[in-house]
Amino acid sequence: MALPQDARRLPLEGDLRRFVASFAEAASSGESVCVLCSGDPGFFGLARLASLHVSPSLLRIHPAPSSVSLAFARAGTNWDDAEVVSAHGRPGGAAEAARAIERSTKVAVLCGPDSPPQLLGRLALEYGARDRRIWVGSGLGSQAESVWTGNLEALAAGRFDPASVVVSIVDETRQTIPGPATLRWGRPESEFEHIRGMVTKAEVRAIAISKLDLPVSGVMWDVGAGSGSVSVECASLSAGLGVHAIERDPDQLKVLRSNTANTRVRVCEGEAPGVFESLEDPDRVFVGGGGIGVLDAALARLRPAGLIVAVYATPERALAAAERLGAMVQVSINRAVPFGHDAALRLQAENPVFVCWGPSANTVSSK
Questions:
Q1: Strand locations in the chain, DSSP E?
Q2: Which of 19, 63, 95, 118 has the highest count of CB atoms within 10 angstroms of its CB?
């Protein structure tokens, strides 16, 4: 349908809310208004904004094939079972999209200048995603359309038009699936490789993880990860949690990498707090090593409503941590062990430790 010769033409730019309010006012006064935009206006488009200003009786929406539907068409598959995420124009959008790629079998991501395809690839690899078939669609439906195919590693190393759609599908022919999620934690130390007995004791680990109150998804730092027992158990308990195991000691790193093989745990070699600069802000932090300076640095990066659990062997550090976090318990464990010629059981004490957690709403910081 051709536009009338006397129709006013206004570019769709600037403050969209003001623009929508102006055409809503024109429509209410009896003018016919047509807004042209690409893709499907009902998916992160103008439809939501227009519905806030225009009466439903005056609003008519005519969607074109969306970039997502075109992307899946180019990939040659259905998308009724896909997760669709917009990474553009929202704080943390690229990270959320990368987590979706890690946790979901089939995903489409709308990219943008602040979340180009190659960034999604790098973040998804950091979160442990592997064995994905990738399509990057640019200019879909136009004469300049291009479609790239490859894997996550090639995606992370490439350069792409930011205004693209990324489709990620698990490659079932190559995927190795880690063990299933479990509600079991506080596993015996014997289930983890460790050196010099440097592994968080099972009972202490069970208490510490319970205080972490693990979220369904998010980012966790395990600072001074050692053997990685806390990281491994947290990753198995929360499938959407990106766990970063931070360790500086070369000998411990060998054990850590062995224990975290075939898990979603990302091993980060480096010394805290300097290594924090390369990591995304955490929702949860477990501090198993380092002084109060490390705890302060983690607190400074903690997201709103986040939690930190810190374990200390000395009361001085524990009290300083408790002042910052707000809660503390001492954990004393006595294990039954055989003794004497008849192997009768006696109790053998482990060194007591202090578990601190918070911050709570009424915590008074001494920093």
A1: 83-86, 106-110, 132-138, 146-151, 164-170, 217-223, 240-247, 266-269, 284-287, 307-312, 327-331, 334-339, 344-349, 353-358
A2: 95
The two structure tokens encoding residue 63: 């969607």
Place of tokens 């099972």: 202
SS3 117: helix
- CATH number for 189-358 (one of 3.30.1490.20, 3.40.640.10, 3.10.129.10, 3.40.50.150): it is 3.40.50.150
67-170 shares its CATH topology with 189-358:
no
* Percent of the chain with pLDDT strictly greater than 70: 91
Q: Evaluate if residue 304 carries a pLDDT over 80.
A: yes
Q: Using CA atoms, how far apart are residues 339 and 347, in angstroms rounded to an integer?
A: 9
Q: What CATH fold (topology level) applies to the domain 67-170?
A: 3.30.950
Q: How far apart are CA 91 and CA 238, in angstroms?
A: 23
Closest CA to 232 of 205, 209, 260, 269: 260
Q: Which residue in this structure is represented by tokens 């109790």?
A: 347
Each domain of the chain, given as residue ranges in start order, spans 31-64, 67-170, 189-358
pLDDT (tens digit per residue) in 154-198 = 999 999 999 999 999 988 665 444 455 566 777 877 788 888 666
How much is the mean pLDDT over the chain?
85
Give the whole-angstrom CA distance, residue 312 versus residue 309. Answer: 10
Identify whether the C-beta of residue 154 lies closer than 8 Å to the C-beta of residue 122. no
**C-alpha span between 34 and 3 (Å, rounded):** 10
**How do beta strands 334-339 and 344-349 pair?**
antiparallel
Q: Which of the two residues, 113 and 280, has the higher pLDDT score?
A: 113
ω into 11 cis (within 30 of 0): no
Instruction: Judge if pTM exceeds 0.90.
Output: no
